[in-house]
Amino acid sequence: MNPHPHITHAPRRHVTVIGGGVTGLTAAWALQQAGLAYSLIEQTSRWGGKICTELVDTGAGDPFVVEAGPDSFIAQKPWATQLARAIGLGDQLLGTNDERRRTYVLIKGRLVPLPDGLMLIVPTRFMPFALSPLISLPGKLRMAVEAFMPAKKDDGDESLADFVRRRLGSEALDKLAEPLMSGIYNTDPYDQSLLATFPRFRALEQKHGSLTRGMLAARRAPHPAHGHGDGPSSLFISFKGGMRMLADRLVELLDGDLRLNTGVEQIERLDDGRYRLHLSGGSTLETDVVLLTTPAPVVAKLLADLAPEAAAIAADIQYVSTGTLSLGYRAEDLAGVPEGFGVVIPRSEGRKINAVTLSSTKFDHRAPAGYALVRTFFGGARSPASVDLDDDALTAVVRDELRDIYGITAEPLFTRIYRWKQATPQYGVGHLDQIARLEAALPPHLFVTGSAFRGVGVPDCVHQAQQTVEQIVAAMTEAT
User: Fold this and answer.
1) Which CATH number fits domain 7-48+250-317+427-479: 3.40.50.450, 3.40.50.720, 3.40.1190.20, 3.50.50.60?
2) What pLDDT shows up at residue 182?
3) What is the DSSP letter of 442?
4) pTM for this prediction
5) What element of type H or E holds 449?
6) I need a surface site. Which of 83, 179, 306, 437 has the fewest CB within 10 A?
7) Are strands 371-379 and 355-358 parallel, antiparallel or unpaired?
8) What SS3 state is found at 348?
9) pLDDT tens-digit profile of 96-151?
10) What is the number of other CB atoms lying within 10 angstroms of the CB of residue 47?
11) Which fold has domain 53-99+319-424?
12) 3-state class (DSSP) for residue 287
């Protein structure tokens, strides 16, 4: 008979993963593949974290597939695609409708298409860029001299804004980099770390002396299909049934100790080097290794007594609030909307939303036949006040913006609002050095990984989880 009924004595060589988002789920799967016993603990009532898909049935046939979090992942970072195939979702991968690909930038209230041949923010085709009204003639001339600008001599970090102004000029920053690249991270480009968010730019500058020459070389180089096999080869990939398919399949395959609605209140290090987790409800769990995949404020709270230096660094990572409002329409209600994937909006436009995605144009299987799904983005560093509006006021603001930008006046069939309060980490200049210091200050056999640390996208989170599990396996091998 167990003399301590509230204590779970996990087997030796046991790992406890705290946080059940995509990072935690991937880590649990990797631990399972490595033959290690594990517990996966999640404070909320569902798995997946920011991956959350809602199926909205309006009686129109197939349901609308509405994403609360990410709607896709970038294929050039192969880790999410590889994971999907490894867990049997290869036939569910869904590429974008590239024959309908066109992205607009809102400039003085007008929809201006991005010119063909633009790779990230660098033009690689002369005539489409030269004829585009997006950038003024002085701005184009400034961007054209980038090929002759000297490369940065040192490896130090800098802000995205400083980098783009240095290489391409202020107009490229305002009309391209800020809405396209800072928009991905919901951050201020003047604070955004280049090395933590777009290290490829520094690599191109150092290798080729110029972004333009580097992008032209990349364009000429032969590339394998992004999917690395059968399946979609577009830049962005999702799943036919929505992003939740990834989280659902991982949960389905996991055979470890999975606990929802379970919070961790304290982590205690024992005399033998193991850890005791004090859980909500008064129970405890003893384990050999702890892996934290939670947001940085939770990491800071749990490490406050155990590793105060690491906790202080984690507490210094800033977060912003973001949200989306999705609207369902009949296709005829969008008859006058220019075909394309959507519009990005520079901060200088002073709008109350940051971008619009025409989800049912970008991906198949997002709306029933004859219907359309529109997704708007708000909050972050550019429109923080929008997050705090109540539902009615926010819906009114978004509909006003859609009316002004796209001419959409019809009443939507439904709306879905998702707010992520203080849930998006900000990678400031020097972020990677900050994370290296945090990791160096951790006690043995305690690890942190996830969106707060070395990449916010789904592929980044998958890759971090896999790399961290490799470190755990190596550490446990050394300990035996």
Assistant:
1) 3.50.50.60
2) 84
3) S
4) 0.92
5) none
6) 437
7) antiparallel
8) helix
9) 998 998 999 999 999 999 998 888 788 888 898 889 999 999 999 999 999 899 99
10) 23
11) Polyamine Oxidase; Chain A, domain 2 (3.90.660)
12) strand
